[in-house]
Amino acid sequence: MKFLVTGATGFVGSAIIRELVRRGHSVRALVRPGSAQRLDHSHAVEVATGDVTDSESLNTAMAGISGVFHIAAVYSYWHRDPSETYQVNVDGTVNVLRVAQQNGVPRAVLTSTVATLKWPGHGQLADEDSVATLDELPGHYKQSKLLAEQAALDFNGADLEVVITNPTAPFGPGDARPTPTGRIVLEFLNRRFPGYVSSGVNVCDVDDVAIGHVLAFEKGRAGERYILGSENLTLREVYETLGEVTGLNRRPLRVPMVLAKAAGAVDSIIEGRLLRREPYIPLEGLRVAEHPLFVGCSKAKSELGFNARPAAEALRRSAEWFIANGYSRARIVAGNQTERDDEAEASA
């Protein structure tokens, strides 16, 4: 089969292309003008220059396609211009699915996020039925992704089947940007974290997320959503696991949320408003972190046959990739050894 993949140069998009090629499928990658050099050329893919906000380029890219994986999105908790987030995440989704429908493409998979789910309360797990309303979601990223889901489901019908995936926090090889989740690992490696708040994430390896997408296309029920995740970990457990799998001696301190928000407010003024660049501590991200969203993945396991590797392996693979690709000068300590002291660490 021949698939069109949007967001092809991104973290998840690249992983999905790798998985499709591994399974013997043909891939056409939608790449924005001037971004073709970011495509992973180790895989034989056809490049289509275009943008999800440009229907004409989508029409050209969609010719002869058997299925669509729509991954392209603005994934950030800081927005220089919030309207761009909605233009890409919502209007772009409408454009992709409308053009797919017009070109007779039978099935599409939309990559959403668990961020669209409603926080179920302390000690509870969210599932695919935990759908939030717009006013229950903090920030432009979450709201735009929920609106994109709603728009996608409006297209689901006899002439175009739409399946939605809700990946959790992806970690692993290829996070070139890096994403907000990848920064957790990178900051751990480089000792750049000021501390952590009392929160948590569901960790999943990016290659397993890619496998889940292909399974969703092959086996997912039209009009349904599937959470793709592995293990729920507090941020403290994430850092502890990173220490275990790398042997690196890192001990970040927990920071009260009120202090983190105060630091974020100052950071937003200096970095965001004055310097016009992404803050180190985006306030929207802190609002998201106030209620850690732990999820259950039984639906994807039972209906798709989805099984993800342990969180420790995903975190280890992420750390190894950052080091191997020059993002960090840290050295992973072999076996069960740990760093002897800070001097050995500083010389890495």
Characterization of the model:
The chain has a domain at 2-173 and 204-230 and 294-309: NAD(P)-binding Rossmann-like Domain (Rossmann fold). The strands form two sheets. A seven-stranded parallel β-sheet has the order 3-2-1-4-5-6-9, with helices on both faces. Helix 5 packs across helix 11 (311-324) and helix 7 crosses helix 11 (311-324). It starts with a strand and ends with a helix. It is of the alpha/beta class. The protein is globular and about 55 Å long. It has helices spanning 11-22, 55-61, 82-102, 140-155, 180-189, 206-219, 235-246, 257-274, 283-289, 298-304, 311-324, 342-346; strands at residues 2-6, 26-31, 46-49, 67-70, 107-111, 161-167, 169-171, 200-205, 225-228, 231-234. It has twelve helices and ten strands. Strand 5, helix 4 and strand 6 form a beta-alpha-beta unit. Helix content is 41%, strand content 14%. The longest helix is centred in the first third of the chain and has 21 residues, at 82-102.
